[in-house]
UniProtKB/TrEMBL annotation:
InterPro entries: Rhodanese-like_dom, Rhodanese-like_dom_sf. Transmembrane segments: none annotated. The keyword Signal applies. Residues 95-205 form the Rhodanese domain. This is Rhodanese-like domain-containing protein. Keywords: Signal. Residues 1-20 form the signal peptide. The keyword Signal applies.
Amino acid sequence: MRFVFVIVAWAGLSASAGQAQELGITESLRGLSFARNGVTHTVGRSLSASDSAANLRAAIDPACPPSCVQPMQAAPGVVTVAELEVLEFMAGPVAEGTGLLVDARLADWFARGSLPGAISMPYPALSPENSFLPDILQALGARRDAAEWEFDAAFDLLVFGNGPASDMAGRAVRGLLDAGYPAAKLRWYRGGVIGWADLGLTLKEPAG
């Protein structure tokens, strides 16, 4: 199944006095808007949005484990990205219908809020012990040819978790690689939801 996306970016808009709390993302980019499955998602930046990071951080067990600092690379061959690359991924593969933003956190974390346009794919679902893993791979565009999986038409995936002290995204990436997903089709956003919110970037509203 493929999705239909529409993308709109706006640049160089001047803030009015009533928008004093609104910040630019870069000097030339004020925000980004894109549609997925008929729902429009907007990414902007504001001082008030960074409050979400404190709320998320307060809910995390700071002990290691589970909150151990992660390396710069989730797995060999998988590119680590930062916020501007995430936005480029939204404006590129996501907008073109060839990429997906994957929130690898458990469902209760996803319900607290996520990156705009992200889908929930908790890392345990990508374990080889999950009997539904073949169905997930097929939903991602992989095709089985006899005993082998073929990934040429599969989505490019940008995977993220809570942040650099969370291993959920790394475990998801490694699960995908173990299933045969090509490293070239995977990206890891190490900053995660907390890094995104720390910069005041828009989070999708929590469920409920």
